[in-house]
Amino acid sequence: MSKMRYSRRSMLKAGGAALAASTLSAPMVWAQDIKNITLRQFGTGVSNLNDVGTKVKEDLGFTLEMTALDSDSVTQRAATQPGSFDIADIEYWICKKVWPTGNLQAMDVSRIENYDKIVGIFKSGLLTPESDIAQGTAPHTVGFIEEPGAKTFASEETNWMTLIPTIYNADTLGIRPDLIGRPIDSWAELLNPEFKGKASLLDISSIGIMDMAMVCEAMGEIQYGDKGNMTKDEIDKTLAIFTEAKKAGQFRAFWKSFDESVNLMASGEVVIQSMWSPAITAVKSRGIDCVYQPLKEGYRSWGGGLGLSSSLSGMELDAAYDYINWYLSGWVGGYLMRQGYYSAVPETSKDYMSENEWGYWFEGKPATGEITSPTGDVLAKAGDVRDGGDFYERMGRVACWNSVMDQNQYMVRKWNEFIAA
Amino acid sequence: MRDSTGKAPGWGVTLMRNRHFVGWLQAAPLSLILIGFLILPIITIVIVSFWQATEFSIIPAFSLENYEFLFGSPVTYKVFGATFKYAFLTWAFTLSIGFTVAYYLAFHIRSQPVQIALFLICTIPFWTSNIIRMISWIPFLGRNGIANQALISWGVIDQPLEWLLYSDFSVILAFVHLYTLFMVVPIFNTMMRIDKSLLEAARDNGASGFQTLVHVIVPLTKPGIMIGTIFVLTLVMGDFITVRFMSGSQRANVGRLISNDISLLQYPSAAATAVVLLLTVLIVIGILLRFVNIRKEL
């Protein structure tokens, strides 16, 4: 592994070259000064990993302080406490809410070394030239602005990026195949009376409503114009169906935090529920059979990225650019991909993964040996295949992106009614 | 007035001799703290409750929309109803358990060291955090939990009882577990102050044990019961996390309504709900205080 490691010197050279290349008359970042820089990053637990902080110190020399919060608190903080962070690790739909506050500043694309290699989803919106664009807040729709300081988003690629994409994934339902004992292939199964009292849904309204929409559409009950931006009428119908199911005792519980979803599944309280990829991993690592079930209607997808606080300037801003370039250069990508997420620049991550790992996680090939998580837990044995196939198969079947609706406030009130029902 | 040197005293001395000024000075520290940390925040909440909000900004313009929505929505009444239900049931259980425990400690245990030892045992659960004590019920009551497994192995039931967890039952169970001590302590305290000669007098006059309890002990314990009641009611009515965890997010009380609004950045609407809740709790406590004068106890 040693040949892959950056020395501080080489990074500084790269950083210096990038600075020299840029037209801005930024000051040179000196080795002594950079040690004193501290960047404060906050975001969801997904990518706020202490290992990343340690590696940053090692490779880049400065200190990265990280705070992990749930997605509601992240939104709150980005919107209301701009002075409390330097780097925001947020999801694209949160960006849609937060950007108009002016608390984030756009990034100069010409200073991003690996920009050309970033996956198309985040630039043109197309995974491959033939792909369709899914419903919801697709990342490219909130990824660019026309000029620094603009409060509205640009309709196409520009030189100013709002968030630098870091990780993303396609979400689906998690199931306990040992307790269900038959194949599951549709979102509609969540409301199947067969699983009465054994189903669960996440109680984060903006994401939960999308899972509901996937279910209602799969049942053939509702046809949505855009699941990511429903009309009042669509919201009413969707919640009516789920309120009825709730009153009939379909749900065992709703969950809000990652750990709750893991416990519900691992204890057998629930056999089918909305779930996130690392939660499946956590259940599996307890030796319990749990599958992230690909469904014929497609996935609900999400993506996250790093945004810069508008208060960053001078040397801190340069350090932040160094950090972003480092983030996309492969080490973090490899780390995240070995947890089952995707990196925004997959090809750089390849260098930091073994052939077996790359084959299993990205190409959907059977594992040739044991697959372990970055922390050493065994996740798959030789011969196992990843749920849902290869990268293009999974990300190509996204039906909807996590989003924030125009009728958000109405939806939230309806959601409160649903919980109280 | 002149002092021995014949000079007029400085204005500071005159001021310090003023009774009213000294009184104000002595009251100042507490007043300032209460104004800064209680009165001002409440005023702020009341003001914000008349504002409006979008996802990312707050519009500071007077509007009654939050209250209109609150009083116009059937959810509000349902949720306040649930909050009262939780508060009442928890109160009833904590009172009966708390009174029994305190009675036993105060009148049946004769030696003071044993009394103190047993009282300390009551506080042992408080050595761990609220959340831990609450969450530890979840594996116990779950579908494959210890309670269900034990009942099945004893042959009492064939199927696991679903209502043990994620139900009103589990919510109230957790509340009672968490808050009974708040009832035991003030009741025990008032009982210890009852003059034992009164009990002797009751007995000498031919009262049965039950009559003594109803006509002597209960009336004299009322202030303690009232203090415990206020503790339990305010704790339960302001709670949101117990309801969320123990009902698996399937039930709502007012606290959860507020916390949902806050998490979605709807501060004005959360503030409006908080104001209504605050008034409700104050009214309830106001009514309770009409019955008993707790100052006697303090």
Automatic annotation (TrEMBL), chain A:
InterPro entries for the chain: SBP (IPR006059), TAT_signal (IPR006311)
Signal sequence, start to end: 1-31
Record organism: Pseudooceanicola spongiae
Annotated Pfam families: SBP_bac_8
Annotated protein name in UniProt: Extracellular solute-binding protein
Xref: Gene3D superfamilies: Periplasmic binding protein-like II
Entry keyword set: Signal
UniProtKB/TrEMBL annotation, chain B:
Transmembrane segments: 21-51, 86-106, 118-138, 169-188, 267-292
Domain of life: Bacteria
Primary localization class, coarse: membrane
Residue ranges of every copy of the ABC transmembrane type-1 domain listed in the record: 80-288
Record's bilayer topology term: Multi-pass membrane protein
Keyword Endoplasmic reticulum: no
Family: Belongs to the binding-protein-dependent transport system permease family. CysTW subfamily.
Name of the protein in its database record: ABC transporter permease subunit
UniProt source species: Pseudooceanicola spongiae
